[in-house]
Amino acid sequence: MSDLREALLRDLPDIRLLTAPAELEHYGRDWTRRWNPAPLAIALPADTSEVQQLVRWAARHQVCVVPSGGRTGLSGGAVAAHGELVISLDRMRQVLAFDAAARLLTVQPGLPLQAVHEAAAGHGLIYPVDFAARGSCSIGGNIATNAGGIRVIRYGNTREWVAGLKVVTAKGELLDLNRGLVKNSSGYDLRHLMIGSEGTLGIVVEATLRLTDPPPPSQVMLLALPDMAALMQVFELFQHRLPLQAFEFFTDVALRHVLAHGASRALDGDYPYYAVCEFDAATEAAEEVALQAFEKAMEQGWLLDGVLAQSEAQAAALWRLREGITESLAPYQPYKNDVSVRISAVPAFLADMQDLLGREYPHIEVVWFGHIGDGNLHINVLRPADMAAEDFIGQCERVTKLLAATLQRHGGSISAEHGIGLVKRDYLGSTRSAAEIALMQGIRRAFDPDGLLNPGKLF
């Protein structure tokens, strides 16, 4: 390690490098906090050329590389625990170009998602992918995990909004993929291989993003429900009658943590389940349709209470009840499952999942919430204060194997939007067949025959 570090500093004197212990720890991990970071060094390139220099140096010395964005990942995808060179893209956060005719925004990978939103707004448009970590996550990391978020029901995942990518390969070559074209039937679309590949096929150094028109004015409702069956009934009713932008749910346990973290209560009384619903409401007539849907759900006994936001500030306060959950749970360092099934399979899967979690975690608090409109559920298991971390992880991994088997029966995925990383690689077989995994491994070898890019992740 010492000799390699000296060689790195000697061979690449013009590239900013960090080697102090605190810096190695900071850049060598993500939000999982389960592995002790031990990178060789942290490189902060300023442009694509410097990324290429770093990758070529790593290839010559057979040093593994971990690409690093905002490090807000929850699957260990940005962990460097075995002497890897971390290539942090923190300094590559510029908006490079805007194409008004094509509605394309070209950015560097380190640009935070919030800054992408602001750049799009400056042109009267939106980049519609959105989630609570918008201020700290980077667009490169979003692409690496095909991030989804709270508006997938309307706009889909990151994949739908990437028109082109520039990627540095394991050999230091620069690929210019699709170049923002709308039509391009010229063989394999390597751009889509890169999206969701978690830095195992190449390092994104530039992204061309599609933008779209802002949605019409919207309204936000907070709904209180008696059970999951009612939640699904309300979702189907609202989806049929309203142009939904988002439909998110959480439990009373999740609400308790968010309120303790500083959010404001919006409804009197306590209820088992809640949903935040946002829908187009450009006219009074549209709002009246929403109120009629609400009354219908109340008559059916599917709703117990609810509130319609009367201002932007109140709408933001209602959204905080959902978006603040992850932050409120962070001090517990929860074990997280991020799963998905087809929307039609949600009721049956939820019944099996609730039985499983109740049986396997009788004395452990489980907080769950999710994007019910796209079949994505987040399960957070909180470690009891008197349980050793090693014992807790062991128990959670045993239960995750059972959960993976349940997902397999329902045709679901062990990772909806967080990626596989280190945390979920042992459960990949519950989502992908042996033939699929073999082909994926073959693709990885074709792009990175020496296995230097983000080693240990995915497989």
Could you characterize the architecture of this molecule?
The chain is an alpha+beta fold. It has 4 domains: 2-91, 2-Layer Sandwich (Uridine Diphospho-n-acetylenolpyruvylglucosamine Reductase, domain 2); 95-210, 2-Layer Sandwich (Uridine Diphospho-n-acetylenolpyruvylglucosamine Reductase, domain 3); 218-326, Alpha-Beta Plaits (2-Layer Sandwich), CATH 3.30.70.2190; 333-418, Alpha-Beta Plaits (2-Layer Sandwich). Helix content is 35%, strand content 19%. It is built from 15 helices and 16 strands. The strands form 3 sheets. A 7-stranded antiparallel sheet has the order 13-10-12-11-15-16-14, with helices on both faces. The protein has a 5-stranded antiparallel sheet with strand order 5-6-9-7-8. A 4-stranded mixed sheet has the order 1-2-4-3, with helices on both faces. Helix 8 packs antiparallel against helix 10 and helix 13 (346-360) runs antiparallel to helix 14. The longest helix has 21 residues, at 389-409.
For the structure shown, list the relevant keywords.
7-stranded antiparallel β-sheet; FAD-bd_oxidored_4_C; 459 residues; 35% helix; 4 domains; oxidoreductase; oxidoreductase activity; Alpha-Beta Plaits; Uridine Diphospho-n-acetylenolpyruvylglucosamine Reductase, domain 2; alpha+beta; 5-stranded antiparallel β-sheet; FAD-bd_PCMH_sub2; FAD; 15 helices; Uridine Diphospho-n-acetylenolpyruvylglucosamine Reductase, domain 3
